[in-house]
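Example 3.
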Amino acid sequence: MKTALHESHVALGARMVEFGGWHMPVQYAGILQEHAAVRTRAGLFDISHMGEIEVEGENAVDFINYLFTNDASRLQVGEGQYTLMCTPVGGVIDDLYVFRIGEEKFYLVVNASRVEEDFSYVRKFAGNYGVEVSNVTASTGALALQGPVSAEIMQGVVSESLPEKNGIKPVRILEVNCWLTRTGYTGEDGFELFFPGAKSEILWKGLLEAGRDLGLVPCGLGCRDTLRLEACFPLYGHELTKDMTPVEAGLLPFLALYKEDFIGKQALSAQKLLGVKWKLVGFKMKNPGGPPPRAHYKVFSGAHEIGEVTSGTLSPSLKWGIGLAYVESGFAKPGQPLEIEVRGNRVEAEVVKKPFIQKK
Amino acid sequence: MSEIPADLRYASSHEWIRCDGGTAVVGITDHAQHELTDVVYVELPKVGRRAEKGGPVAVIESVKAASDIYAPVGGEILEINPAVTADPSLVNRSPYGEGWLFKIRPDDKSELESLLSASAYGAQIGQ
């Protein structure tokens, strides 16, 4: 599938790749340049591949709270939260954002590759709760404006006050009605906006123009991945799968285990109590000039294979090989020496505190 | 349009080779460096190692992924370029110059004849 901005990306010289069933830009000027722009100024991403699902009905809060791990009853209208959708045994179906856009209405933002499965799962339970669910992905365009000067750029095109962290607001930008959220996937301050797909070009070009003097550049999925990895945000299919639970992934703060019931609650509560076999750790290579770690490289401690890398790269900010890995829980403390197998050779690494990059 | 110097020979796996007497210099093409994007790590073979024609001898890693580099001809590795391991971006900036990877002594110089000419390589990459 192609987003409404496909032609604009090609015209800007983007290199296009397949991602989650979509033809998406991986880079324009270059991943390193775009990464640096988001860390120091701002970047604009086409995220129209993301899925959007609306949920509405009298029992919408109970419905959301039964399907997802976090506690949506704590959300006021205009607030949002990160949450997870799990199987009954605690495996992750998807990670998503839930925004409360009305007393009885919620807006879900889910991963591109998971939309179909998420929607059929959500729909399966909708009848029991008498809620209406609609998959509005195909008609919705979405952009992410990320970076330290993104608020200054956004305030230049929005007359209302900007939403607070994790918040959502209906706003009018360049004559287009949008849902504006203070969220992102880069570890920087930033926004995501959702709007009728047909208006994509107005917003894409208008925002690039509005931010040009502040150093805003178009950014592709390549730097989106390095930015989220430095911030230690999990990526579905890498850190999150049906074989691992949010407890193993270190996402306890997003599990409202005190809720009366939700899908996966028993399994996740038991894991919290009894401990887990695997833990997701951040690690750094010992030698900055060595080979960068990559997904699926094996992790050793001496003779024992203790885990596997889920994501790895040369961190553009730190100029150092970094990664995330599931390791046996006895090897998960910061300072733990690890060896990563790279093309048959063992290369030294060390567990470090997450995230790799933290902004005030 | 990427640069394809007329005086070099090319492997279909995007390496170039320049033969000078008994030794040959190998690197990757401008097209290849462009496709790989920002090179952040280069792993070169040990000097003295034997390479087989078409066999993997080096690894170039971009931000996103690792790619094997193949020997265009069989032979002995005579020298490697320490400048590219110290500054991998040389591969992007100067693929036919400072970004060369290694020197090899071809076992059989006639293997060079089986490689692509600049125009044949250009046709392969749609140029």
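The longest strand of chain A covers residues 304-315. The CA atoms of residues 27 and 220 of chain A lie 4 Å apart.
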